[in-house]
Give the backbone structure.
Amino acid sequence: MIERKLNRRLLSAASLVRQGAVFADIGTDHAYLPIFLLDEGRISRAVATDINEGPLASAERNVGDAGYSAAVTFRLTDGAASLAELGITDYAICGMGGELIAEIISHAPHLFDENLRLILQPMTRQAYLRKYLLSHGFDIEREIYTEDGGKYYTCMLVSYSGVRRDISEEEATLGLGSTRHTGDGRVGYLRARLSSLRRAADGKLRGGVAFPSELALISAIERLIPEILENNT
């Protein structure tokens, strides 16, 4: 049976794809995202990639069963480097760690283009990815926070501006500017991050190691959560 609906995590990514886009789903797995976008009439065509033959074959079967074989191109490839000449406008890189997403971008110079839209959903190392993006000339225009299956996710809308800047550890951990953040999962996302930081601080305390960076971030999150809750009431 073809999956025609998306979970909340992938819906947040789908919402950031432009109308009429030529869409690439990097690491497509079952191709649920391009099938959904084609069902919605959001995209004109898609490229689905994966590094492994099994998931790509599954994606191709699903797309065929959905009736979209003519609209989707499949590539067995590592990342996005081989997609430069395909006219893609919107790239989604979801379900991977922040370091791997940064590596994929760094190996695909054509992504450094102000006309392209990158939709990034890091499962881990979100702070690392934010630092990488800003220091390499990208701007995070928006972040959508969602809860799905008891876990919290952020999805970043990113474009290239060429303006490089370093950001603080606090900005990297909490995100950039409250006006860029949407979605009802942000408080849960921050609480999960707070719990992780407290565990790290407790481990260092028991080991007799100083932990000023963790304390600063814990304090920042503890200040931010009540502000968000107050603004949402």
